[in-house]
Amino acid sequence: MRETLVLNASFEPLSTVSLRRAVVLVMQDKAVVEQEHAGLRIRAASIDMAVPQIIRLCRYVRVPFRQRAPWSRRGVLIRDRHRCAYCGRRATTVDHVLPRAQGGPDSWLNTVAACADDNHRKADRTPEEAGMRLLTQPFEPTPADALLLALRVRDQTGMPDWLAVPAA
Ligand SMILES: [Zn+2]
């Protein structure tokens, strides 16, 4: 997978994103190409552009890249796109994989989005004890996740809790 380096508007390197993401950012006028891959082009129905090696954001974004995103229930639901980790249906609750009753922490790696039915069924048991299987493994949001989410909003209003940035 070819990765593109993303610079902030201030030219500070922020992160890398997939080539597909980089092209989308340029096409949506959220970034400009700073450096192209010599001789490599992307050709599709409505696109003919050089493959970007480095892009720079048009607008300065403040994202806590070197900081771990603080855990929150709302953040878990957003990370998992409101899909239940046990059945794939719409999730409105957060389940602790290792239950809190057994010492399971509030952390990105120990929590998943779950529908109310599955959360109730699992109760204070591990997936193994409850005979349930995780369809996806919980993960910690990466700096690239945070960057892409941050770019969709004009300012911090409406930004997920786990992306909220302390005032500088
Ligand atoms: Zn479910």
From TrEMBL:
Name used for this protein in its record: HNH nuclease domain-containing protein
GO MF: endonuclease activity; nucleic acid binding; zinc ion binding
Domain of life: Bacteria
Species whose genome carries this gene: Streptomyces smaragdinus
Entry-linked Pfam families: HNH (PF01844)
Phylogenetic lineage: Bacteria, Bacillati, Actinomycetota, Actinomycetes, Kitasatosporales
SMART domains: HNHc
InterPro entries (UniProt xref): HNH (IPR002711), HNH_nuc (IPR003615), NA-targeting_endonuclease (IPR052892)
HNH nuclease domain boundaries: 71-120
